[in-house]
Structure formats: C-alpha cells, structure tokens
Design brief:
The protein has 70 residues and is an all-alpha fold. It contains 3 helices and no strands. The chain has one domain. 74% of the residues lie in helices and 0% in strands. The radius of gyration is 27 Å and the shape is rod-shaped. The chain starts with 11 loop residues before the first helix and ends with a helix.
C-alpha cells in the first residue's frame, strides 16, 4: 500500500520528492545559466578577435616563422 496513516512508516512520495527535487533544481539552475550565457555569446569570431586566439592565424604564423628560420 503506497500510503499509510502510520507516522513511522516510510513514505514513498517523500522519498521520490527527495530524489527528484534536487534534479529539477539542478536542471533549472543549468537552464537559467545557459540562457544568460547564450544571450551574451557573440560567436567564435568575436572571441578570436578579442583574445587573439585564432587557430588558423596561429598555424599561418607558425608556418611563416618556420620558413624564416630555414
């Protein structure tokens, strides 16, 4: 029987809430943080311009330096 009037009997509904509640809490926090982050994200191009960390340009610069040292 899933429900009992005996206060010492374990409640399956309470156990389910204890397990599922934090999962919903974490999912909500993740969704809120992701929504804030994605609305401010401008894309990889602006990231590379701001930081100077562009993989293609780094490869070209490395190849140019290797040609100069030969």
């Amino acid at each position: 029987m899933p429900f009992s009037l005996d206060p010492s009997a374990p409640s399956s509904l309470a156990g389910l809430l204890v397990i599922v509640g934090p999962l919903f809490l974490f999912a909500g926090m993740y969704l809120a943080c992701y929504t804030i982050w994605i609305s401010a994200w401008e894309g990889w191009e602006s990231w590379h311009e701001r930081t100077g960390l562009d993989g293609d340009r780094a490869e070209q610069e490395r190849a140019r330096k290797q040609r100069l040292h030969r």
